[in-house]
Design goal:
Length: 60
């Protein structure tokens, strides 16, 4: 398995965070206590897992 402690308190920029893979990546990084930022053009589905992770900073 991967050592996710490397990402603890680090700033991580994720593009495509509202997609399937990006949303899971954000969830894992947030669980590793990373500071996750993301950029999106439009949110097409409100059932994305991104809505479950409140630590993600969304930038428009």
């Amino acid at each position: 398995m991967f050592d996710l402690s490397v990402y603890q308190w680090k700033k991580v920029w994720v593009t495509g965070h509202n997609g399937f893979k990006g949303s899971w990546l954000c969830k894992v990084l947030a669980l590793a206590e990373a500071r996750v930022c993301g950029y999106r053009l439009a949110l097409s589905d409100t059932s994305s897992i991104v809505h479950c992770v409140r630590r993600i900073i969304l930038l428009k």
